[in-house]
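#struct-help
A.M.: can someone run this one for me? Single chain, 142 residues.
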Amino acid sequence: MAKHLAVFVENRPGKLEKITRALLEANINIRAISIQDRGDFGVVKLLVDKPQSAEQALKSAGFVCALREIIAVEMEDKPGGLHKIAEIFSKNNINILDAYGFVIESSKIAVLCVEVEKVLGLDEILQKEGLKIISDHDLYGL
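D.P.: on it. Structure tokens below:
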């Protein structure tokens, strides 16, 4: 299963630069990013090409971070693309904890990366519903 990094940081100028410097020095490519404000602290979510190496690099640089399991679902890049996935999750009682998306090819393919509560057989449920799951290897190589 694919993973992204959640990095917990003080909400101060320069913190993102320190994160990106640590990843640059470890030759880690950032594929997607999300930053969430939590007052004095924030959470930076990173989808990278080498998650385990990125976690080690960030911990060595003094950051508190954790690898979190996600599922990456391919969706159409058109109106209703996200709704189709939301409808399937709702129908199957799958609770979304966190999500972000990005486009691979404009007007054709987008990706939704989703962290959900543990669901037994999640991959099988989504594939049965006709969704294409992107493997961790393929996701990190996009």
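A.M.: thanks! Residues 25 and 57 are 8 Å apart (CA to CA).
D.P.: also worth noting: The mean pLDDT is 92.
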